[in-house]
């Protein structure tokens, strides 16, 4: 079977999905949109009422319901929170909230989200779309948000997911002037100019079926006003424009490859190996000398001959050289292997087939695993020409079109908030028209008269004038007034019950719109009504809007990671914060000593994190209750007055904080107390120093007194000792003198004795 061309396939998909079910769903929800915009009477109904003399006004009870639902769903901007998958991604994941705020402000997301919610309420579904403005930021590109028209979007009828994740395709179809499309895609001007469209058949079909149902005045596919050429002022040719998004499975290869070290690392490895080999070579040289010496001894002793000696020496030298070379190769290879990192990357199968042909790449491939990854393919068609076909980047796996349902039915055809109210609105309109018409008949009476009995022109002019004299012709019977039939009280009951039924069906009561008669008297009673009365709205937010917002955040994350891969600084305005502007920087290059980029700080494109919507972030806040709660928390000491002032609507909050802040007052008090403490500390230090000096002086004086006392005592003792010593010396001298005298006497006696003995011996001789 031959393959169908993409252009024919796109047209065939549109023809199949634009069936009776889709057209009926669009008709019902278009009617709801018309009723909410006070376009509640068809042309046939208006003409019929005018022919009967009945009023054609309507009492629009749907518009306030729509406005209140819009208010509750869009009171504040949604806020997203990023949860890092790995600990290393925590800081980078925290940047996502700031990038989401930047994209939201860049795209005027508040207005788009408000229109999307309004479409959800009135047309049963609204859409937010994530796209890329390639011309933004001087060609660097920016992620932007768009808000497609719900009736331009055609979804796979077999989809059963509330976010259309399981849809085989999502198609956007518009009818636009050629010049407008050329302005959208200037690079495809020649293709657009040559494109043809079979739009005339549809124009005739639409014109014939206009009376079958009512089209809103603000939404028409075919309108002469849309076909004006802005350059020439003439009518321009209308042509169909299609954008087809479909999920496909693309073959990918998970490649594992070796990443060898760089030249600098190899040079360092060589130096380490050479140093190790040099040390080993010196050791082997010593071993060689020892072996040579042993062989010389064996040669001298005759145990080895000269030839054996020469041969063994030669073998040893060759073996040592081979070992050194082998050792060098082994060590170098081992260190290179240790320094080599096994990395993996994911490429498409087509890219892998091209890369594997390169021997430099194939030599480093360790393993490759084939798998099929979900991708989004986008095909753009104008008339019978295909402008472009591309597969969105690898990180984008979800449809860029996110649906916001009001009441999901399990199919791509949800129910709006207005559809159940149309019947009651018609009932109220008809009741008011009948009552006003009856009152008008009672005020302007109708008359029955015999023909020719009165001057009809005169009676028509003055019959209802106060005090008018109405003549009749002589002999004629006077005209008889025709009184309107009295209305049943059921009409008044129907109107009142109809209003209550509409409030009950919509979940929007009079008290929620400021009706003082329906409100509670006490403040806490009003808060209770606000809490209980918004439960149905919160159910819609929790089950429909917040899942869609969470999906929108994920798509924004995928697109932003695919687009923001270069160094970029985001400047985000902070209207509610004290700091007016916040700068966020991602993909900051990290350079080495040589000025080469070796990595990125805050690498946003490589971070892994999940995105969640902050629950209830779009709901309104009861200002008085919130401020009262903050006041109680401040009195309890949980928060300070700066946090309270930050949540108020006062002007010049920063100046007030500077002047009246409790922190500022405390800071002044602390500064003054610090000065007092400094003065007191100085005084205390001086007094301590004086006390220390006085103590030292006292101790010195006491020591001097003690020293003087001991000195005097020592002097006294020394004097006594001196007297005693002198006496002892005198006694000793006397004793020694006496001893000397006694010795002399003894020596004299002995000498005399010796002399006598000598003399006696001579005498005897």
**General form:** elongated
Q: Let me know the largest β-sheet.
A: 6 strands, antiparallel
How much of the sequence is in beta strands? 15-25%
Q: List segments where confidence is low: pLDDT < 50 over at least 5 consecutive residues.
A: 201-225
C-alpha end-to-end distance: 184 Å
| Mean of all residue-level pLDDT scores | 78
What is the number of helices? 23
From the alpha carbons, calculate the radius of gyration and give it in angstroms.
54 Å
Q: Helical proportion? A: 40-55%
How many runs of DSSP E, i.e. beta strands?
A: 17
Structural class: alpha+beta
Q: In words, what does this structure look like?
A:
By secondary structure, this protein is of the alpha+beta class. It has 23 helices and 17 strands. The strands form six sheets. Strands 4, 5, 6, 7, 8 and 9 form a six-stranded antiparallel beta sheet that branches. Strands 3-2-10 form a three-stranded antiparallel beta sheet. A hairpin with an 8-residue loop joins β2 and β3. The longest helix has 103 residues. The chain is elongated. About 3% of the residues have low confidence.
How would you describe this structure in keywords?
single chain, 765 residues, alpha+beta, six-stranded antiparallel sheet, three-stranded antiparallel sheet, 23 helices, 17 strands
């Amino acid at each position: 079977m031959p393959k169908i061309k993409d252009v024919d396939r796109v047209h065939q998909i549109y023809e199949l999905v634009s069936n009776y079910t889709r057209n009926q769903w669009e008709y019902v929800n278009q009617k709801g949109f018309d009723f909410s915009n006070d376009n509640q009477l068809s042309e046939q109904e208006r003409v019929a009422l005018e022919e009967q003399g009945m009023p054609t006004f309507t009492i629009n009870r749907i518009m306030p319901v729509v406005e209140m639902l819009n208010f509750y769903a869009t009171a504040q901007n949604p806020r997203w929170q990023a949860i890092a998958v790995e600990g290393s991604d925590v800081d980078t994941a925290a940047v996502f909230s700031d990038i989401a705020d930047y994209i939201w402000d860049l795209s005027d997301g508040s207005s788009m989200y408000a229109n999307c919610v309004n479409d959800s309420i009135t047309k049963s579904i609204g859409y937010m779309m994530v796209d890329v403005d390639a011309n933004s930021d001087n060609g660097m590109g920016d992620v932007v948000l768009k808000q497609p028209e719900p009736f331009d979007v055609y979804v796979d009828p077999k989809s059963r997911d509330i976010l259309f994740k399981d849809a085989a395709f999502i198609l956007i179809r518009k009818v636009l002037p050629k010049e407008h499309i050329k302005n959208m895609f200037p690079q495809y001007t020649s293709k657009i100019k040559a494109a043809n469209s079979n739009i005339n058949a549809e124009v005739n079909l639409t014109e014939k079926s206009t009376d079958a149902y009512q089209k809103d005045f603000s939404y028409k596919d075919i309108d002469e006003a849309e076909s004006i050429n802005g350059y020439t002022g003439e009518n321009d040719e209308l042509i169909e424009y299609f954008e087809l998004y479909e999920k496909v499975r693309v073959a990918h290869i998970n490649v594992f490859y070796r990443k060898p070290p760089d030249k600098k690392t190899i040079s360092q490895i060589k130096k380490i190996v050479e140093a190790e080999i040099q040390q080993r070579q010196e050791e082997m040289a010593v071993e060689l000398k020892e072996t040579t010496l042993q062989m010389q001894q064996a040669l001298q002793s005759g145990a080895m001959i000269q030839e054996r000696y020469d041969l063994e020496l030669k073998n040893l030298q060759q073996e040592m050289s081979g070992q050194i070379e082998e050792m060098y190769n082994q060590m170098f290879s081992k260190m290179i292997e240790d320094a080599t990192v096994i990395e993996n990357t994911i490429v498409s199968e087509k890219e892998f087939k091209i890369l594997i042909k390169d021997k430099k790449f194939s030599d480093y491939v360790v393993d490759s695993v084939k798998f099929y990854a979900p991708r989004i393919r986008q095909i753009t068609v104008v008339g019978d020409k295909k402008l472009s076909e591309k597969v969105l980047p690898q990180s984008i796996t979800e449809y860029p079109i996110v649906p916001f349902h009001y009441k999901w039915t399990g199919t791509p055809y949800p129910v709006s908030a207005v559809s159940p109210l149309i019947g009651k609105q018609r009932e109220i309109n008809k009741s008011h028209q009948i009552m006003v018409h009856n009152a008008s008949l009672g005020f302007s009476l109708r008359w029955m008269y015999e023909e020719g009995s009165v001057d009809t022109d005169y009676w028509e002019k003055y019959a209802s004038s106060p005090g008018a004299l109405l003549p009749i012709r002589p002999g004629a019977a006077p005209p008889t007034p025709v009184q309107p039939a009295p209305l049943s009280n059921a009409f008044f009951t129907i109107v009142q019950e109809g209003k209550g039924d509409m409030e009950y069906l919509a979940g929007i009561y009079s008290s929620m719109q400021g009706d003082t008669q329906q409100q509670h008297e006490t403040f806490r009673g009003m808060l209770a009504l606000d809490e209980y009365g918004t439960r149905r709205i919160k159910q819609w937010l929790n089950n429909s809007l917040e899942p869609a917002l969470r999906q929108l955040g994920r798509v924004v994350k995928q697109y932003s990671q695919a687009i923001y891969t270069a160094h970029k600084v985001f400047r985000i305005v902070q209207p509610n914060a004290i700091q007016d502007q916040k700068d966020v920087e991602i993909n900051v290059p990290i350079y080495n000593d040589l000025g080469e980029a070796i990595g990125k700080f805050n690498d946003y494109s490589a971070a892994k994190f999940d995105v969640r919507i902050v629950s209830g972030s779009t709901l309104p806040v009861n200002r008085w209750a919130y401020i009262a709660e903050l006041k109680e928390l401040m009195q309890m000491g949980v928060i300070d007055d700066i946090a309270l002032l930050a949540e108020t609507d006062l002007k010049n909050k920063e100046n007030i904080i500077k002047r009246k802040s409790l922190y500022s007052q405390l800071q002044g008090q602390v500064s003054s107390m610090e000065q007092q403490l400094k003065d007191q500390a100085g005084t205390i230090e001086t007094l301590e120093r004086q006390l220390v000096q006085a103590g030292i002086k006292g101790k010195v004086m006491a020591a001097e007194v003690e020293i003087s006392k001991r000195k005097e005592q020592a002097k006294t003792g020394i004097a006594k000792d001196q007297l005693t010593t002198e006496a002892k010396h005198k006694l000793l001298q006397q004793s020694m003198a006496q001893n000397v005298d006694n010795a002399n006497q003894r020596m004299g006696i002995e000498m005399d004795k010796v002399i006598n003995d000598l003399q006696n011996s001579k005498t005897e001789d």
